[in-house]
Amino acid sequence: MKRRPYFLKLLAFSLLLAMIPVAIQGVLSYHKASSAIQDKVLESNRLLLQQSLNHTEQILKSIETTMLNYVNSTEMLNAMNSPIVPAQFPLFTRLNNAVSSMSFYEYGVRRVYLINFAKDWVIDGEGTYHLGQIDDRSKYDKLLSRLSSPSAWVPNEGYIPSTDANRSGKDDNSLLLVQKIPQYSTHPTGLAIVVFPESALSGMIAGSEKLGTFLITDRKNRVIARSDAGHLAGTSLGDAVLRDIRMQQTESGFKTLKESGEQVGVTFIRSSYNDWTYLSISPFRQITKDSRAIGSIVLVICLVMLLFIVILALLGSRKMYRPIAQIYEFAAESGLGGRGDELELIRRQFLSMRNSQFELKDQLNIQLAQLKDFFLQRLLRGELGTEEAREKCLSFQIPEDWRMLTVFTTRIDSLANTRFQEKDSDLLMFALNNIVRELIAPKTRFPSVLLNTSQAAVIGHAHEDEEEIRRTMYAMCEDIQATLRQYLGVQVSIGISKPYRRLVDTSRAYEEAQEALGYRIKYGDESILYLKDVQPDEEDNMLPAFPRHVETELIAALNIGDKEAAEAQFNQFLDWLLAQPVSYREQQVYLARILLDLLKIVQDMRISAKHLLEGESSIFTRLFSLRNSEELRKWFLNEVIDDILELLKNRREIKYVKVAEELAAMVRAEYDTSLSLELCADRLGVHPSYLKRVLRKELDTNFSDYLSMYRLQKARELLLETDLRIADIAERLQYNNSQNFIRYFRRMEGVTPGEYRKKRNPAMISGYTG
Predict the structure, then answer these.
(1) Which residues contact 4 (CB under 8 A, 6 or more apart)?
(2) pTM for this one?
(3) Which of 171-180, 419-428, 541-550 has the highest mean pLDDT?
């Protein structure tokens, strides 16, 4: 066989299954051993570092203690009070000998200085000097300002007295032990300075291959000693790294840093004696030297185990693959090609056989369900005869041994205040139909179907007790309503037909259920409407008289634009209609009549009601599609009455504007005649009171004020543009005498006509006669 991808997969899986535990065990073993060794190396480094710290501090404390004892001795205190005079030469000789003997040569200390500020002398073990002759006092004041305790170790920054012993500068790279004299004085009179070379401090550090480079830094991060160099001119660690170690909150610890591109481990301990930091810097390759050796051993062991596993996996995979190979050879004869391994080919062979078996069955089931739905739709529409209906029931295995049958139809009341929109109505009806099929046992019903905008189902009953049938249907419908409300969040109304016996009468029963649903407009949403309960008594054929007085008052309110009165009259009409014992079709006749009378108002006013009649369906189709009284009330008030009121209002406003424009033109043309409100109203063909309303609404004034203001405007023009006398102007503007004109002009303009002409047009003064 050429193709054996599954065998390779089986072999690879076996190897992978065995290799993963070996690899994990090897990694964990190496990690555990490596961590333990590294911890021991780091602990060893820390112990060596601690030993070096203890050794160094022991020497420093020994030097400091010796010097403290000497500066507090009686001889030293007496010397501090003695000047350099011949009589005191023996004393200073003894002091030089004592200082020379305290040089601590075993520790590398080269020089000790005694300085007396008060008596102006310096002793260095080789001689006595006047301080003022060899040094400036200010550098010692600076040194004193740095001391926060009676004695301290500080770097040499030019603080050594310039005696003959120090002129060569060989003590520049040194640490200084500085002690006040007297020891606890706030204003010391002298100092004792011990010069401790940094090279001697570096020589005391214990060198170690595992410890690596050893460093000592002072409190200002300056390197004052290291184990791998003769002098401390520089360090391989940067200032930022030293500051990072210095800023650590713990007194000791370990950090990983980068030095010259190589990863190193830094172990540090901070001294409480002088706040120095002791550090050891070791390359990781040195720390992990033993770990790498263990890793090599673990790797060899894992490789040996993996080789053994490969041999076992190869032998076992061949044995397990043998039966699969035989089945694969049989399946390959079918000619099914394509990608995949041996099992994939076998799977396709079985799937092909299975699909061939069930594909036809699935198609038949789908077609059977569709044919059954189609049969029930034809049955509900009355398109089947008795014999054909029985034959279909037999072919679809629908039982016929019912004593009585009923039809109920379900319709969604409204999608307002739900999470659905109108575009979801088809999907909701499909979900509603499925829920009804789940709630009602198939043995008691025909398959429910969707028909037009509602869902319909035929229910069979094994008895003829009509009251029992009524209770059963009510209980069933209440269960449907509650379930739809719980799972879909929608309200539905259900119409129930009268019971019937013959299957061929199903179409009549469906019409009865639809008719029962029509009474939602009276009983409201989420109603269960049993036709015999909601249908009026058929023996009473007398219809109630149409309420003409309510309609008349409604039309009157619309004509005068009284919205509140119009709404109140319509609500009165609707309440009257819902209280009448009439069928829902007769209710539609009354509603159609009131709608026609309302539209007639607009037509009588010769107003186009095009937008009232626009839409996807006619206004009467919209009227008859309303599902309950609340929807009916809102539609009439918001979409019919409000629109009619707006049309009438716009018509009145247009007429007001036209009348106001004609009146303004009349005043402009005949302001110098004896115009009056009654004369203008008569000439315009309207009542004077109507003309008053027009002026108040459009011009916000009355007729006399409007006429007077226009005449005042013409008076200003005549005063400025003509040389007419004031009396002539008053007569022309229909004033009885000129004094009335002058008084009115002064009240409105603040000046007399003559003064107005004089200020505005002096050129006219020559023609003015008063």
Answers:
(1) 321, 325, 342
(2) 0.40
(3) 419-428
